[in-house]
Deaminase
Amino acid sequence: MGLIDIELFATLDLVAQAPGGPDEDPEGFSFGGWQAPLIDEVSGAQVGAAYEGTDALLLGRRTYDIFAAYWPHQTDDFGTLFNSIPKYVASRGTPDLTWAGSQQLGADLGAAVREIRDRHEHVKVVGSLNLVQTLLREKLFDRLDLWVHPIMLGAGKKVFDGGAVPTNVTLLQPPVASPNGIVHLRYGLADGIPGTGDMSAPDQ
């Protein structure tokens, strides 16, 4: 069984909407492209390393449309990778799947994601916040890579925007901060649900 990895860029107040550019997801949001001024060599290398071994992409409709308009024309390392591996698209509509290697998932998203996990070793979910909420709710992920950027926006779609349920995760590696203050956090899904306790209870 393979791994489903969620890759997200977020602000300190966990806004994850439109990090890449002004036209990415402008609905009700005026800070599109907020990530660009903060990227540095260290965070860029972290992102590159996170994609090593990726053999499939799992994308929501909006992210797929953005990727399909851009990556087929790129020949850098990411372009070569993305153009060569299967792309699975979660959509209730009828997306234009002209990007080579693309296919739409069926109506039973949970079953489709489980089938993808069985078929591939290392599946990446990029952006796709609506899809991410479903994966969080159903605990259909294995790892969450979160790059937290040192800004607060106070508005926009958030990482845990209605999808989170009581879930245990474990930190898979020590957090690493880049020179510009971007902190990379890598969590893995863990068994069980969060426990509770009483901080005022005397030591046993």
The chain has one domain: 3-163+183-189. The first strand starts at residue 3 and ends at 11. The radius of gyration is 18 Å.
